[in-house]
Amino acid sequence: MISTRLHPDKQSAAQAIAREMADLIRLRSESGKATVLGLATGSTPLPLYAELIRLHREEGLSFRSVVTFNLDEYEGLAPAHPQSYRFFMEANLFRHLDIPAANIHVPDGLAADADGHCAAYERAIRAAGGIDLQILGIGRTGHIGFNEPPSPADSRTRRVHLDEVTRQDNSVFFGDVAQVPHGALTMGVATILEARRVALLAFGSAKAAIVARAVKETPSADCPATWLQRHPDCVFHLDAAAAERL
Ligand code: GLP
Predict the structure, then answer these.
(1) What domains are there in the chain, each with its CATH number?
(2) pLDDT single digits (tens) 135-182
(3) Which of 33, 38, 201, 223 allows an S-S link to 142, with CB 3.0 to 4.6 Å?
């Protein structure tokens, strides 16, 4: 089931979700347990990551007991490539926290055996105890992670072909659409649905149409975000503009 939560703006949403994450991390670490977070890239989660860094610096929130799994990575981009998701995560979150490097997982866009790497990624999530809280954005095609249409509900971490709409949308970061990779490695829909809690963030009128489809359409591979309706604890954190078609 998808429930929606309206926030006055993206900063307020970031504060609320960061607070939820901090409570979870503190609660679990008090009883000696790790917290496993599923993380997303894109411009949407940036205020959330800035708030987590602030909580670490100003309120002493420690990430020593946190394990992370990122949703996806472009195929063919090295970790040092400025547009790789590994680079994005290091620059915007990890390097500012006390999270142990060994606890960080991002799919390897250069994996020689991509299929084997994806299977190992699934095993690593399971070995860590599964994802406690998965952060998601949403693409205009209805993708979550890089699960482009058509992505079935039972899809797992795998190689995917990027939709031209997504390549066009993401070309702003690359300068030129020709530079945007055609492929990616992404957690699957089933991988995402296994997270115990899911928080999807969407802000601004450009997301209104796809948010409405995700919430209202019958779940199908044609709009992968609709599969979230089958999750028992999925919250869409929205501002008024992103919620205007609900
Ligand atoms: C990217 C990512 C997604 C992200 C989406 C939206 O392609 N793979 O995980 O949610 O696009 O990006 P943005 O937040 O910049 O709108």
Answers:
(1) 2-238 (3.40.50.1360)
(2) 999 999 999 999 999 999 999 999 999 999 999 999 999 999 999 999
(3) 223
